[in-house]
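Quick illustration for those who missed Monday's session on complexes.
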Amino acid sequence: MSHFMRTDGSYQHRRSTTRVLALLAAMVFALNLPAPARAEWFKSEQAVMGTSIAVQLWHTDADFADACIAAVMSEMHRIDAAMSPYKESSELSKVNREAARFPVAASKELFDLIARSLEMSERSGGAFDITYASVGRMYDYRARKKPGNAEIETALKAVNYHHIKLDRARGTIRFTHPGVYIDLGGIAKGHAVDRGISLLRERGIRHALVSAGGDSRILGDRRGRPWFTGIKDPRNPQRAPVVLPLSDTAISTSGDYERYFIEDGVRYHHIINPGTGRSARAARSVTVLGPDATTTDALSTTLFVLGPEKALKLADTMPEIDAIIIDSNGTMHYSSGLEPPAKQ
Ligand code: AMP
Ligand code: MG
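Prediction with magnesium ion bound:
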């Protein structure tokens, strides 16, 4: 197991005691058991939700495996159709069009995801705020477009999660301020990954990985071995200097290298500090490990905005969460549940 601690950058996941122990148990187990006849890994990758969706699972029956993968992919399309801010026909777009004028009835799924977003806003003092989009929608990273100072100042008045009112009894959403736009880009991929894993579990799958861009969830392990997930070097994303052995966990990374452009030496990227209406500056990447991908997705974005000090403080109040933060100087910080590799 020396490879767990191979490089300077490698971390052993201490609080994952259960995860690491489960892993060891599985390894021992695997040594004693013959592999089931003709079982194998099935994989598929598709572009959905503006990102790459990957599903890998272990099964003996190719037709069944294909059907499982198809079910996950169609779930991804369903969620995209409901929650995309870019599709006029999405439920989210309807809310954005109407909720400043009157309460809009929402599906339980959308209502619940917005409710979870508001909880994260409360917990983070507003670092996570889906109304960031009131100003965030004025950026177009591909077109290298950003709002001017005056535009930001005006739009910022609409950025405040308190402008969102949920009525649980009626299942409605209302905005109490004009110009409010919401976007679930910081949490919906994690939700989609969790839905994918649920579908696989319901079908009896015990070893799988579902990922949507930077958000992944692992069911079981890799048949007696861990999955190895790399944390990219934010300034050279082809390289992954840190490798984490993982099983039965969710992992999300938010980075300033995912959607960005550079102008006059300044990096304009897609994670917005709701206080300023500008790209958050205190980190280059944040990786969060936790029990489910909805939580790790929202938290990776949140901790990115908070910056290392406040981020680690918040992470350490959450017993099931671990975090690895690469700050604006490239220095790595990690939550107290993680241990640096032992010196060799
Ligand atoms: P992630 O890659 O998970 O960190 O998500 C980044 C996405 O979250 C962005 O593309 C936006 O859609 C959304 N986002 C950006 N800033 C915030 C924020 N402060 N609070 C909530 N969502 C945000
Ligand atoms: Mg995220």
